[in-house]
Specification:
heterodimer; A: mainly beta; 4-stranded antiparallel β-sheet; 3-stranded antiparallel β-sheet; 39% strand; B: mainly beta; Immunoglobulin-like; 10% helix; globular
Chain lengths: 132, 141
């Protein structure tokens, strides 16, 4: 049953490069839940260590891109001795098509989790079809 | 080995490489209890003291229970995910459930002086090294 099992570590997946990056830095895919209600599509992304001001949301050509940068200054003076996970920016893109009202997307950050609520455009909402 | 470079991107990459080089390093010695279980831990040295940074996104601060005794630190709790009713789930990658792991530190620490902070889904434990365990300079007479 979900919620009852013991939590397992999820290895971070690296962003697969669509283009060759000019910087050797690694970026990671945030673990994401997506669910839909009648009126909205909700995306929930885990980006631990990302501050509110370091999140970029961008919609271009029907693609929503979420980017979270890590402030590495917080690690200044810290010398790693033992590591189980790597640290780097998060990046993920979603094709959202015309069903979303792009001007009304809202975002909320809490405990390293960003929740994006994407309201559906009027014409994309489900309609009950009466049988004539 | 404090890293300072003119180019911030070089700094970041050097930091990522330093983490990778310490991946599951033998720093913990034989005390591998809990190694690799949830939640994942990075340990850093800061001067004489230690800082453990633990990824726990989406966990209510009140649900995290930290205990320290001797050289052992226990981190336990529960991560809950609530979906609203009447949704259709398209993708589900986030995991929820209970966690309980211990970290045995290979040095003497002050368990009563450990400080914990939880911010943006990261739990940071500031672990002071025991006074008697700190290296001393020995004068030659």
């Amino acid at each position: 049953m979900p919620g009852q099992q013991e939590l397992q570590v999820q290895q971070k997946r690296e962003v697969e490069k669509a283009q060759e990056a000019t910087r050797p830095m690694r970026a990671f895919l945030p673990n994401t839940d997506i669910f839909e209600t009648e009126d909205t599509l909700t995306l929930v992304l885990e980006m631990p260590g990302v501050d509110r001001e370091n999140i970029d949301l961008n919609v271009e050509n029907g693609v929503l891109t979420v980017e979270g940068r890590i402030d590495f200054n917080k690690y200044a003076g810290l010398q790693p001795v033992y590591s189980e996970y790597n640290v780097g920016p998060y990046r993920r893109s979603f094709r959202i098509s015309g069903m979303i009202d792009q001007d009304k997307i809202t975002a909320e950050l809490s405990d390293g989790v960003i929740t994006l609520v994407l309201p559906k455009a009027e014409r994309a909402k489900p309609r009950r079809i009466a049988i004539g | 080995m404090i890293m300072r470079y003119a180019d911030p991107f070089d700094t970041l990459f050097a930091f990522q490489q330093a983490l990778e080089n310490r991946q599951l390093s033998d720093w913990l010695g034989s005390s591998t209890a809990g190694m690799g279980s949830y939640p994942p831990i990075n340990v850093f040295q800061q001067g004489d003291d230690l800082v453990a940074i633990i990824e726990l996104p989406g966990v209510n601060k009140a649900e995290i229970n930290i205990q320290a005794k001797g050289d052992t630190i226990r981190i336990a709790g529960r991560k809950s995910i609530d979906y609203p009713e009447d949704v259709s789930l398209h993708r589900r990658e986030r995991l929820s459930g209970a966690f309980d792991r211990t970290l045995v530190v290979p040095m003497q620490i002050e368990p009563d002086a450990i400080k914990a902070e939880y911010n943006n889904g990261l739990l940071a434990l500031f672990i002071p090294r025991a006074e008697q365990d700190k290296p001393r300079t020995i004068q030659i007479r």
